[in-house]
Amino acid sequence: xxxxxxxxxxxxxxxxxxxxxxxxxxxxxxxxxxxxxxxxxxxxxxxxxxxxxxxxxxxxxxxxxxxxxxxxxxxxxxxxxxxxxxxxxxxxxxxxxxxxxxxxxxxxxxxxxxxxxxxxxxxxxxxxxxxxxxxxxxxxxxxxxxxxxxxxxxxxxxxxxxxxxxxxxxxxxxxxxxxxxxxxxxxxxxxxxxxxxxxxxxxxxxxxxxxxxxxxxxxxxxxxxxxxxxxxxxxxxxxxxxxxxxxxxxxxxxxxxxxxxxxxxxxxxxxxxxxxxxxxxxxxxxxxxxxxxxxxxxxxxxxxxxxxxxxxxxxxxxxxxxxxxxxxxxxxxxxxxxxxxxxxxxxxxxxxxxxxxxxxxxxxxxxxxxxxxxxxxxxxxxxxxxxxxxxxxxxxxxxxxxxxxxxxxxxxxxxxxxxxxxxxxxxxxxxxxxxxx
Amino acid sequence: xxxxxxxxxxxxxxxxxxxxxxxxxxxxxxxxxxxxxxxxxxxxxxxxxxxxxxxxxxxxxxxxxxxxxxxxxxxxxxxxxxxxxxxxxxxxxxxxxxxxxxxxxxxxxxxxxxxxxxxxxxxxxxxxxxxxxxxxxxxxxxxxxxxxxxxxxxxxxxxxxxxxxxxxxxxxxxxxxxxxxxxxxxxxxxxxxxxxxxxxxxxxxxxxxxxxxxxxxxxxxxxxxxxxxxxxxxxxxxxxxxxxxxxxxxxxxxxxxxxxxxxxxxxxxxxxxxxxxxxxxxxxxxxxxxxxxxxxxxxxxxxxxxxxxxxxxxxxxxxxxxxxxxxxxxxxxxxxxxxxxxxxxxxxxxxxxxxxxxxxxxxxxxxxxxxxxxxxxxxxxxxxxxxxxxxxxxxxxxxxxxxxxxxxxxxxxxxxxx
Lengths: 437, 418
Hints:
The structure holds two protein chains of two kinds. By secondary structure, chain A is α/β, with parallel strands linked by helices. Chain A contains twelve helices and 15 strands. Chain A has a nine-stranded mixed β-sheet. In chain A, helix 5 (about 125-135) packs parallel to helix 6. The radius of gyration of chain A is 22 Å and the shape is globular. The two termini of chain A are about 20 Å apart. Chain B is about 35% helix and about 20% strand. At the A-B interface, helix 11 and helix 12 of A face helix 9, helix 11 and helix 13 of B.
């Protein structure tokens, strides 16, 4: 049902997109008119990108590798140097100088008509920008984690549902054969009844102490970089290293929740629920401006009896990756094509015709494009992305408070702990507010 | 009714008794020093201070005759003690003293082998069994295997020839906890930076009944090779080893804790002031003396983010933190706030303790002396732990241009939750 309606909306939007291009003839690249492209221009997905840093550009290149199926026409960043560099690269790829640039996503949303938006920005901006883009009925490929707080996540999920757009989370491990295979084996009971899961995520790096206050570089709009976060003087920490500061991120824990916790959930069929009890400890830097936990070790209990342990890899017997333990043994999966088991026999043979088959995608980016065309659900839909990061965020609350947190995964509320409940959101600095859905 | 009352009295009495015990020194410790290629004059009073401040030990120090002196006068009564801390690398002891020491350990005495004490007595076979691994003093393949980690596997190399013991230039290095279950290392971070120290590598010894609790990566690649820089990503990719840093050994009934850390400078220096050294030394000493560890991991234990130092060798207290928090300057140190955050974690289930702390925080918040930085951080913490008590004081700060954002942040969160 929802797929049908979103398909209809998609078609409408596609027409609008083409119309939009037609009234602005000066920016139509020749390739977009079908003079050399393999696909007719109406079939090419018209993209915008918010966040031209390393992850955004890496994703963008992956989309361009899909054999002439996309065209990025608008880029946005708060760093003018990055923006100019990105435009150069995109113009080269487009064989045109027409790609437009913006320093403010609001202006981009006002002026552009797009099929899809790629978004790769610091987590503290996700709530506002993801919801704003979705409210414009633009399909989104959004980097994980979906949100900085549970409340941001709830808003984004509602926005995606209400607007019926196609959403893909950047949890690309789902589109790798061995991760898919591991999850299918586990879903089909190869380890027996699952009793526990280990999710091993990276250890923290090194701190930097407290660097002196610096002049903001001319190319950086620091006020806009901070956005809804509390105002602090610029100390040279912005791009990339924002992930070690709690105002913007929860550290490696939240950065990687969208990978190995996401895979854990997929294999154990926990994608549409959450834990009921969370407790554990974090290791916080004693000195300096980095205040996210550099180590973490917490247990999530689920209503069905499964216990998921989330910890930095050094603390776990099998290190990085996801391990499902059951009464018949364990299966472990990690990057680098690593798929092992307590007994190699658990990994033999194929999944039978009558067994459970999980959604299959060979390429995370192609899957998004296909779904934008078809209106179908992607391999990494918004709900799964939200449930993956909510495990990390609830762990963060348990570690922050030092308490055992009780969580109602249906109502999505903390039970009987008003102080911990306050940590489900981070108030925004005025004038920023979460968009209404 | 009456019976219940009596029972409560009994419980209260027992609690008083146990808490009194806690404040009393349980164990007697003896530090052996007097000869060393290191600054033993600097290290031994610090080691005593560290033991005594746990409240678990009363510590004596025995100083041997100087090098070449008459060792027959060195005749400690080991058996009077629960723990012997070896800060000694020097002349051979008399047979009588050696025998007494071995008897002490075999009968269940605790030993801490501190830094260069593992250089001592290369020829004394039983001593080498006690330290597990040793270095220098012409130690070589005859002394025993090299023992180290490669990845997650312990390597016990009985076949390679080569020197026992070397170290590169002093540097800061990352220590990796290898055993999260042992009482000494239970609860420690998996990775923690240690202050500028000598990273011992290529130690050799009998390594019997030995368990490695922590390691550090050394670029020293193998026997006969020049030690390289001991840290850094470039070296990490080379063929180095994760060398044992903290070990336990059992000998007879005796428990031995061996730490290669703590190179002493005048007044201590970064290796001894490092909280990682201090805390593992204190925990190792208690374990060696008793087989258990009752000390909590302090809030200032270092992480991979950076080494942490106690220049005065004292643990920060709530009183220190609250007294200094008003003059907080982020550019200088964040440790009082780290303490506060960890303290909140510890007491956040206790309404009364939390309210008491909240009141103290508000006192700083409304004082004229407290810095803007301090108030900003206090507002962030109060935003989630605060009660109605904080609200009026925070409302007053909304009109303060420098604190408006943080005050509004706190007030949004402090709204009653449905």
